[in-house]
Structure formats: structure tokens, C-alpha cells
Predict the 3D structure of the following.
Amino acid sequence: MAIKRRSKVDPTFSMSSMTDIVFLLLVFFLVTSTLVNPNALKLLLPKSTNQVSAKPMVSISIKHYLQSNTFSYHINGKNTPVALSEIEKLIQKELMDQEEPTLSLHVDKTVPMEQVVNVMNIAKRNQYRIILATSPE
């Protein structure tokens, strides 16, 4: 007595589930790739562990005097203050022959953003990179 199989194995493969997976992966990568490069100024925001790959060539400090509500700008940690109108010339002189000129910006907590943006605008005009310094946690 010969036993015959009534059902045959279908050798074809259904690709519909595979195309669904590929489509979902495509949508996922499109959404995440737009989050990687937001439209903003080129700022290097260091982590609180102070590990940054770019080394600043010039340091700018902005100090706020609360009693008189005035600000002083200092270049490379010098005690002599510099006027805001002179900062651009002094930075250009310091960073003249550098391939990737980088500024480090040290700002008091009480300094208004307007003062920080003034220095950032100077860096943007001259196409300098900025590192915004933070204190460790």
C-alpha cells in the first residue's frame, strides 16, 4: 500500500513581510537623520567632564558686576578688561594663521544672553568655532 502525500510543499517565498520591514526601517532612518543635524550655530557644547576634542586657541571671559550692572570682557584670562568693540580685532590678530580657529567662551551665570550673543556674532562673522565652557557637576 503506497501512501501519497496530499499536500505539496510550496517552494515560493512571500516577500510582503520583508518589504514592510524595509519600509519601516527606511522611515525610521529618515526621521532620526533629521534630528542629528539641527539648524543652529556651530557650537561645541562640552560635557560636564570637560572632555572636548577641539582645543581652544583663544579664551574669552565675560564677567558681570551685579552692583553696577556692568560687564567686562577678558581675553586669555588676562586681568585687564577689553572693550567689546576691540574684541574682534584682538581675536583676529590671535587666530590669524590657524587652520580651525576655535574660541572658548567662559560666562558667569548672571550674564544676560545678549552679551553672549554679541561674542557669538563676532565668531560667526569670522567663521570661528565656539566652545561654551561649563563647570563640572
